[in-house]
Amino acid sequence: MSERVEIDGYDVEAVEAWIRDNTQGLEPPFEWVQLEGGHSNLTYALTDLKGNRAVVRRPPMGELLPKAHDMGREFSIISGLGPTAVPVPIAYGYCESPEVTGAHFYVMSQVDGKALFELEDSLDYLTEDARANVGLSFMDVLASLHSVDPDDVGLGDLGKKEDYVGRQIKTWYRSWEASAEGASYDDPDLHELHDFLQSRRPDQGPARVVHGDYGLHNCLLSEEGLLTAVLDWEISTLGDPMADFAYALNTWAEPGDKLVNKENAPTLADGFSDRSELIERYAAKTGCDLTDLPYYISFNHFKTACIVHGVYARYMQGQKSSEGVDLDYYRTRIGVSIELSKQAAAELA
């Protein structure tokens, strides 16, 4: 570790000096190793000469949207949830000043475990017996998150507490309408879903911290199939826990699904629980009323269709390079999401 290397987005010497002066138990110089995932944030594992480990995380390079990649927000969330039953990394320190390395950043503990992105990750990392543990642990952690009163952990101001789903529908429908011309793609079913979802919104219960992207790609798992940490809290806010729960279910593909948003999802491997087991576990842990669950499943598929539609439009307009990109995949995924949303909505008719 005596040889200094250049790290994109980081002034290594300045960041190491800040960590030395503002955290405990870490002694630079560090070995820097970039970590996968992380929503394009520049995330590195750090190891000092004594083997002490940490993770440093900052926004990506270039011009960013005003509220995107808020490292201070992430740091506040893992700090607040640290004393709870939700497994999160330990928050070591947050540097608000961009003078150190050109952007704000934070430092947290490095947690052992592996995230699952693809089917191959499950096959390579987990035995079939271990896969049987994942779904229950996945739901237990989500239930723990939704049992936390945000006011009790200093997160009561994380976002608006009322009408989470209604606000989300308005936001993503506006996105669809703004992208329709650029995408050269509109669908009357999407508009009908919008009207249905707005008219049938269930009453929201007490607001809870919602992760917003809770899936195995944002969780670390032990080799025994137990969650060791939940990561990537940057879009977390306060809202309806049932929406968070339904989103997690929508990420959980199972063998036999006729329509899937991801063909090689990690949960397609043998041994994983099916969605009915996840629903039973979450309901048992939270005591939630499942009457409106199809609504929330429909809402999340609607939202996914709008998000993917926006990405597709940027490719079609040349705002993102489409070199090597399968544009048909995005168009197909939009259609699949709309169809899945319609199927769930039909259960409420």
What is the structure about, briefly put?
With 349 residues, this protein is α+β, with helices and mostly antiparallel strands. The chain is built from ten helices and nine strands.
Number of domains: 2
Mind telling me which CATH architecture of the largest domain this is? Answer: Alpha-Beta Complex
What distance lies between the first and last C-alpha atoms, to the nearest angstrom? 63 Å
Along the chain, the helix and strand elements come as HEEEHEEHHHHEEEEHHHH
* Basic shape: globular
Strand order in space, largest sheet: 1-2-3-5-4
Query: What is the assigned CATH homologous superfamily of the largest domain?
Result: Aminoglycoside phosphotransferase (APH), C-terminal lobe
- Return Rg in Å: 21 Å
Q: How many E strands?
A: 9
At the first level of CATH, what is the class of the largest domain?
Alpha Beta
Average pLDDT, rounded to a whole number, is 94
Q: Note poorly predicted spans.
A: none
Give the strand content: 5-15%
Helical stretch tally: 10
Structural class: alpha+beta
Largest sheet: 5 strands, antiparallel
What percent of residues adopt helix (DSSP H or I)?
40-55%
The CATH topology label of the largest domain is Aminoglycoside 3'-phosphotransferase, Chain: A, domain 2
Q: Which structural traits does this protein have?
A:
single chain, 349 residues, alpha+beta, Phosphorylase Kinase, domain 1, Aminoglycoside 3'-phosphotransferase, Chain: A, domain 2, 2 domains, five-stranded antiparallel β-sheet, two-stranded antiparallel sheet, 10 helices, 42% helix
